[in-house]
Design goal:
Elements lengths: L27 E14 L8 H8 L8 E14 L10 H16 L2 E2 L13 H15 L4 E8 L5 E4 L8
Parallel strand pairs: 1-3
Antiparallel strand pairs: 1-2, 2-4, 4-5
Helix pairs in contact: 2-3
């Protein structure tokens, strides 16, 4: 009770309605963005004989390769910007993906690319490579993971290996 006889409320003032939280207290949100490209590859390891390659990779070891219409989903996170209301600038994100992913992989035979000169171009390795590219070059938001859909039945996801060297 106050000296005037009424109940005193806490001294903490309620926030005004319609205000946007400051950057450090802004909510964290996740953004998933999808990109599409077509590529071909041949699953073949120089460590195996022709017979072993056929046994391990089956029809995917076709000497002429085979293709897929890939869907790549990149999931990013960050604090919601108080001015834009967004996690990141979608124009910048799309420009990065276009330059670094689509121009590099669309309508390419993956086996011919430098990034697969020492690795079998499986969709697992493609997913890891796309993650690596985003991790090294995109700074607009925090990269959570990359998901590559090779077919309706096959999807691959990579979120980093947790190594300090990443």
């Amino acid at each position: 009770m106050s000296a005037a006889g009424g109940n005193e409320k806490s001294a903490v003032k309620a926030p005004e309605t319609g205000t946007v939280p400051k950057r450090d207290s802004a909510p964290k949100a996740y953004l998933g963005r999808r990109y599409h490209f077509s590529s071909s590859h041949r699953l073949h390891s120089d460590a195996y004989t022709e017979e072993q390659n056929r046994a391990v990779y089956g029809k995917c070891n076709n000497p002429h390769g085979h293709g897929h219409n890939y869907v790549v989903e990149v999931v990013l996170s960050g604090r919601v910007d108080e001015a834009t209301g967004m996690v990141c600038d979608l124009g910048e994100l799309d420009a990065f993906a276009r330059k670094e992913i689509l121009e590099r992989f669309d309508h390419m035979h993956l086996n011919t690319l430098e990034s697969f000169s020492k690795a079998v171009p499986t969709s697992e390795n493609l997913c890891i490579e796309i993650y690596r590219i985003f991790k090294a070059g995109y700074t607009g938001a925090h990269l959570e993971h990359v998901r590559v859909l090779e077919t309706n039945n096959n999807a691959f996801e990579y979120a980093g290996d947790g190594a300090a060297a990443e």
